[in-house]
Amino acid sequence: MKPRKLMKKAISALPTALATASLTLLLASCGAGDGGNANTARPTGSAATDAPDRSAGQKEQQTGEQSVQTEADLEAVTLRTGDLAEFPITWMPILGSHVTAVTRPAACRPVESVRMGAFDPRPRASVRRYAAATTGEHLGSATSITLAAFSKADAVQIMAELRDAVKDCTGDYDGGWTDTFTVRGLDPVDAGEQAVSFHLTGKSVVPMWYTVVRQGSVLVLFASTTLTGKDGQVPTPLVTRQITKLQAAASG
Question: Which domain of life does this protein belong to (predicted)?
């Protein structure tokens, strides 16, 4: 079965309007396309990673949290359908791009990079998933989840720059495209080694909630929206379960 058909089948349990609109809005906000089932192999020809795979003999000497470095490593620890009953998990394509437009003021550039799913520097490997709550208190939420592997130094640097940007980017900023955005810092979730959370609104995009968590040399980006009309958030169960899986793999 083709990836597009699998995606439609996976979200068919949602009300039609919610499933279609939430996926469309989330993909439009993050600049992505269609996807397939998370429990199947990635479709041939899709973007894999910005760095070549490394064999065991070529990898850095890594232990513990830095052992998750390749796409295969990330695939093994991503959320899957069944991990959380209320969240079917489906595959999404990697954006694989940099922020090329000029962000003004420059202090806001790390925030714009997260909005576009374009880490700088680029990750060694990355995978992406989509979770739309079908039941429970988070019904109506739609979340993109990206796991990206870096050197530990790069991961720490990205988090430091993002934390400063959320603090310093207090007014509207120009993303360099067709919109201006307003950033509001949020209390970070208690997960991983470091976490940064913020809310982002714009004139022509739906409100979005973002959380970025660092666990060792892996960054996990959660980008959520809601169509319920209520104030939203990145669903805590998604964050907790995903980071727990990553920690278990790193310590195993």
Answer: Bacteria
pLDDT in tens, 195-207: 999 999 988 788 9
Cα separation, 139 vs 87, whole angstroms: 9
Phi, psi of 11 (to 5 degrees): -100, 10
Which pTM does this prediction carry?
0.78
| pLDDT tens track for 139-188 | 999 999 999 999 999 999 999 999 999 999 987 898 866 688 999 999 98
Domain ranges for the chain: 3-35+67-231
Which of 215, 225, 217 has its CA nearest to residue 247?
215
DSSP 127-168: EEEEEE--SSTTTTEEEEEEEEE--HHHHHHHHHHHHHHHHH
Is beta strand 89-91 parallel, antiparallel or unpaired with respect to 125-132? antiparallel
Say which residue the tokens 């900023």 belong to.
173
pLDDT at residue 236, rounded to an integer: 95
Q: Of 110, 223, 221, 117, nearest to 173 (Cα)? A: 110
CB 198 within 8 A of CB 233: no
Tokens of 112: 């714009």
CA–CA distance, 242 with 147 (Å, rounded to integer):
10
Query: What is the structure's pLDDT at 58?
Result: 37
Which residue, among 179, 247, 182, 238, has the nearest Cα to 208 in the 3D structure? 182
- Residues 6 or more apart in contact with residue 140 via CB below 8 angstroms: 18, 22, 133, 226, 227, 228, 230
The CATH number, out of the four listed (3.40.1000, 3.40.1350, 2.70.180, 3.30.70), of the domain defined by the range 3-35+67-231: 3.40.1000
